[in-house]
Each structure stands twice: as structure tokens, then as C-alpha cells.
């Protein structure tokens, strides 16, 4: 079990994601992928919360949020 | 990030529009942009076309991103709603069917070849300079004019939303993107 310390991460609204893959192209750490052509998924271990994906997302469905690991 | 050959497909997209200006029969090549995404989705179960190979998306990315021709504002909520995306897909398919019907009429000899490109399903632009006769039936050229109209219209819509919102705003309501995502959802066993 990890500590309850809150960390900031990119979070995808999967229901509204169009799976275009713009976020994948800009992620400097390959921390985001399109899963089975349905929606993007962020690897919370790799994400350093740079916000590039959120800025790039044409539907603006990626937010930088505090999450409890 | 390492540059790959498919990162240059925006050149093909641009070339397509240019070639159609000189000889409309090149418009037939646009069918690749219809069948490749559908094949990748239906066989591979992914949106690999959007994610990697879409030259139009790359073109918008380049113009809106590197050339700064975009306000980079959020797209309005209604434009990313399912109602709008699915509605636009249905409208687009209906217009596609109408184009096929017009092509059929020329093949059947009921209607003469219209040497024009229809922009935004409304404005008929003269385009006769791009037609030099064909070895095939005039219906072959009619399909080319119709298909090029669709490609030019969607490029113009994409450019407008690129300027108003984010560079690749077109991807949000692109009918091919919506269609391939629906196929992928069905394949992944989720409700569409």
C-alpha cells in the first residue's frame, strides 16, 4: 500500500475521449496510450504531470488533478 | 522524439488537394483515407490510422501548432457531445450517399457530368480546368468531382475549427474518427 500523499496526475475523461492519439504524440515519457481504439489511458507511474497532453487534447478531456495514489 | 516516415504524411494530404486542382481524377486516391482507417479498425481493432497515419490531422497540427494559426481555445461542449458527433456522422454519410446517387445518374445517362466542386454542400465552384476528358465513362469523373467536394469541404471545416479552437479540433467530430471509434468500441465489447 502506498502512502496517502496526494500527487498531481493527468486524468482522462474516458467517456468523452475521441481516441485521436494527439496526447500520445506529445507525451515526453510515453506515459499515455490509446487502449483498443476506445480511449486514452495514463500510466500513473510514468506521468510527471507536465500538462502537455492536456494542452494538446483537441477535445480538452484531459485534466491535471490531484489523485491519491 | 524520433521522427518516422509516417510523420510526413501531411505532405500526401496537401499533395492530394493540389493534384485535384489540376486533374480531378486524382480524387479517387481519397478512397484510401476511407478504407484504410476502416480496415485498421475492423481487422486490428485500433484507431491506428488517427493515431499515426492521418495526414490531415498532421497538417492541422503543423498549421495550428508550429505556424501558430490557432487560438488554442477549448472546443465548445456541444461539439464534443455524442449527439453532435453521431449526428455529423449521419449527415456526412447521407451526403456521401447523395454523391453516390448523383454518380449513378451520370452512369445511367440520366444526368450530364457536372464539372464543378460543391463546397460546404451548397456552393458550386467551377472546376472545369481539372477535367481533360477520360478514357472511362463520365461517371468516373462525376464520382471524382463529388469525392473531391467532400474532401475539400471537410478540409475547410477542419481549418475553420483549427483557427477557432485547438489545431486538431477536426479530430473531435471527424466522421471517420467517430466511425472507427464505434467499430473499436464494438470490438472491445463496450456499449457504443
Task: Please provide a written account of the structure.
The complex is a heterodimer of chains A (69) and B (192). In chain A, the strands form 2 sheets. Chain A has a two-stranded antiparallel ribbon with strand order 1-4. In chain A, strands 2-3 form a two-stranded antiparallel sheet. In chain A, a hairpin with a 3-residue loop joins strand 2 and strand 3 (39-42). With 69 residues, chain A is α+β, with helices and mostly antiparallel strands. Chain A contains 2 helices and 4 strands, in the order βαββαβ. The mean pLDDT of chain A is 90. Chain A has a single domain (7-67), classed as Alpha-Beta Plaits (2-Layer Sandwich), CATH 3.30.70.20. With 192 residues, chain B is mainly alpha-helical. Chain B has one domain (5-188). The model of chain B has no long low-confidence stretch (mean pLDDT 94). Classes of the chains: A alpha+beta (69), B mainly alpha (192).
Short summary:
With 69 residues, chain A is of the alpha+beta class. Chain A has helices spanning 22-26, 52-56, and strands at 7-12, 32-35, 39-42, 62-67. The model of chain A has no long low-confidence stretch (mean pLDDT 90).
Write the layout of secondary structure elements.
The complex is a heterodimer of chains A (69) and B (192).
Chain A lengths: L6 E6 L9 H5 L5 E4 L3 E4 L9 H5 L5 E6 L2
Antiparallel strand pairs in A: 1-4, 2-3
Chain B lengths: L8 H14 L9 H13 L3 H6 L1 H12 L15 H26 L8 E4 L3 E4 L11 H27 L5 H4 L1 H14 L4
Antiparallel strand pairs in B: 1-2
Helix pairs in contact in B: 1-4, 2-8, 4-6, 5-6, 5-8
Amino acid at each position: 500500500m502506498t502512502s496517502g500523499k496526494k500527487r498531481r496526475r493527468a486524468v482522462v475523461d474516458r467517456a468523452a475521449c475521441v481516441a485521436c492519439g494527439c496526447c500520445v504524440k506529445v507525451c515526453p515519457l510515453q506515459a499515455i496510450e490509446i487502449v483498443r481504439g476506445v480511449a486514452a489511458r495514463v500510466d500513473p507511474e510514468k506521468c510527471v504531470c507536465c500538462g502537455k497532453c492536456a494542452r494538446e487534447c483537441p477535445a480538452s478531456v484531459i485534466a491535471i488533478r490531484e489523485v491519491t495514489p | 522524439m524520433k521522427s518516422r516516415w509516417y510523420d510526413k504524411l501531411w505532405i500526401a494530404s496537401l499533395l492530394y488537394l493540389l493534384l485535384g486542382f489540376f486533374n480531378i481524377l486524382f480524387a479517387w486516391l481519397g478512397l484510401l483515407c476511407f478504407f484504410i482507417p476502416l480496415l485498421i479498425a475492423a481487422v486490428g481493432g485500433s484507431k491506428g490510422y488517427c493515431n499515426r497515419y492521418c495526414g490531415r490531422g498532421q497538417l492541422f497540427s503543423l498549421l495550428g501548432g508550429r505556424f501558430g494559426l490557432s487560438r488554442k481555445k477549448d472546443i465548445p461542449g456541444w461539439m464534443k457531445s455524442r449527439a453532435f458527433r453521431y449526428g455529423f456522422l449521419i449527415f456526412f454519410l447521407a451526403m456521401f450517399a447523395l454523391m453516390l446517387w448523383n454518380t449513378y445518374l451520370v452512369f445511367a445517362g440520366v444526368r450530364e457530368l457536372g464539372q464543378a466542386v460543391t463546397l460546404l454542400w451548397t456552393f458550386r465552384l467551377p472546376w472545369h480546368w481539372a477535367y481533360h476528358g477520360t478514357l472511362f465513362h463520365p461517371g468516373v469523373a462525376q464520382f471524382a468531382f463529388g469525392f473531391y467536394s467532400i474532401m475539400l469541404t471537410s478540409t475547410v471545416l477542419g481549418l475553420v475549427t483549427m483557427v477557432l479552437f485547438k489545431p486538431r479540433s477536426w479530430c473531435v467530430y471527424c466522421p471517420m474518427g467517430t466511425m472507427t471509434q464505434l467499430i473499436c468500441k464494438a470490438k472491445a465489447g463496450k456499449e457504443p
